[in-house]
Amino acid sequence: MRIGIVCPYSWDVPGGVQFHVRDLAEYFIGLGHDVSVLAPADDDTPLPPYVVSAGRAVPVPYNGSVARLNFGFLSAARVRRWLHDGAFDVVHIHEPTSPSLGLLTCWAAQGPMVATFHTSNPRSRAMIAAYSILQAALEKISARIAVSEYARRTLVEHLGGDAVVIPNGVDVDFFAKAEPRPEWQGDTIGFIGRIDEPRKGLPVLMKALPKILAARPGTRLLVAGRGDEEAAVESLPAELRSRVEFLGMVSDEDKARFLRSLDLYVAPNTGGESFGIILVEALSAGAPVLASDLDAFAQVLDQGAAGELFANEDADALAEAAVRLLADPERRAELSERGSVHVRRFDWSTVGADILSVYETVTAGAAAVAAVERPGLRARFGLARD
Amino acid sequence: MVIGLYLSWTAGRLDRLHSRIDAARAALDAQLLRRASVAQELATSGVLDPAASIVLYEAAHAARQAEEEQREVAESELSQALRVVFEEPQQVEEVREAPGGEAAASELGEAVRRVPMARRFHNDAVGAARRLREHRKVRWFRLAGHAPFPMAFEMDDEPPTALADRAA
Q1: To the nearest whole angstrom, how far is the Cα of B72 from the nearest Cα of chain A?
Q2: For residues B121 and B27, what is the distance between their CA atoms, to the nearest angstrom?
């Protein structure tokens, strides 16, 4: 099958959607499919052979912050050329609601289109015109995928219609077979995420840490992720700061070994998560997981069966649960075992097969994807003015 | 007597400056509003691609709805959005080719060139009034009364080159 995948975010910036697209593309290539990924990238970024650059994303003020987006005449021309050269059986668009490549592709293509909604950006107010612009493009999508029940619900609320839920995929064995590293073992709590992004929840964990250390002085907190390390430990009493170790950005291999080594993985995120791929990775590595009770996290952790949940933003609850788990190796082994079984449903072999069956459903009997013949501007303008 | 006349003359001068500011501000508001309206009209016309439409629409909407304190930021963001959307001369060309597009493009071109002008006239009047008000005779004798201290309107009003050039 000839598959075209559209990634809306810059290939050179690491992010959940980018990784998902990369893994999905590589999984399908492994199965012998013909895959091409269209993604924004700087001209000098080295790209894997299956990625086609859609040009550089430009910074634009959007939704209260500066977003890097692709749109306009040149990007549209590149999308059309990619569609034309690719002659895809199906095009898979990621994040079609962000005003970037995904939406542009919806507009420029016709034929079988699948779209995955990763996050849902809840709008502060209904924007009638923006909504109708969006709807006109989204109507062309033949099948919608939401990455979690939560993402699906917001999609239904904000845009109407429905979607099938297919979670993000993880290469479970990559994590399950990683070798633990001795220096990360022994009474260790782990955290992965941007240090200076408060929604990732490191401040909550820092608030809970003195209590955890009071009960178990031998505990170490290992933090993997970018950000200002000085500022992160500012709230801690000086004598406890040595119990926090920063590892900086870690490679995929080190991330797997890191998760394999931990006694407890803590995800204190306070919001903004629609899936929680990091939890799936931690479960794959067999790390006992303690996470805030966000909707998305509760889903991934099977409502607490595959990992423990604590009340969101409640540092005391976090400390209490962490101390209890650290003191109870049996409970941790039980969580680890249940997690390893539960997480199989997120393995690429399951997720990839599900996505492939979506492709097959929409391509059955349909013609290949093509670039839209540009309708006369007169006609379009006439319609818009009616 | 002479001092009194001088003070009264100064007060009159100040009053004239304040009304000049009011008029300049009204003109600036009109230009900004006009720019936002044309941008919004173009965004909803279907001539632009949907991604550009949404970015432009939201920027124009935010500019029109902005509270006084956020006005400068919102208007600057609209300038940035306009620059990005109309960065390519072909994009402007495409708008011009649409029926009624010629008029819309020149209206927008006019608006983006007039905003910086109106803003300069306004800030010029504000500067003149501020210099006078800072003078001690004005401060000591409270000649300005309760009129608020005039503030300049600071924003990024750089027009998109592709639009501003053509609209000459």
Answers
A1: 14
A2: 9
Please provide the size of chain A in residues.
Answer: 386
Mean pLDDT per block of 10 residues along chain A (386 residues) reads 92 84 93 94 88 88 79 88 93 89 90 86 59 84 89 82 89 92 91 87 92 92 89 86 90 92 93 83 94 90 92 93 93 93 92 94 84 59 45
Q: How far is A65 from chain B (nearest CA, A)?
A: 10
The shortest CB-CB distance from A104 to any of B51, B57, B81 is to B51
Say how far apart CA A350 and CA A288 lie, in whole Å: 23
Q: Examine the domain organization and report whether A19 and A126 are in the same domain.
A: yes
Same domain as A246, residue A111? no
Which residues does chain B have within 8 Å of residue A58's beta carbon, measured at their own beta carbons? Answer: 84, 87
Is the separation of the CB atoms in A178 and A259 below 8 Å? yes
Question: Domain tally for chain A?
Answer: 2
Give the predicted TM-score (pTM) of the model: 0.79
Q: Would you call A103 and B43 a contact, using CB atoms and an 8 Å cutoff?
A: no
A92 and A146, same domain (yes or no): yes
B88 touches chain A (CB under 8 A): yes
Q: What CATH number corresponds to the domain at position A279?
A: 3.40.50.2000
- Residues A146 and A180 reside in one and the same domain: no
Q: Where are the domains of chain B?
A: 2-161
Residue A190 lies in domain: 172-344
Q: Say yes or no: B91 contacts chain A, CB-CB below 8 A.
A: yes
Dist CA B18 CA B89 (whole Å): 41
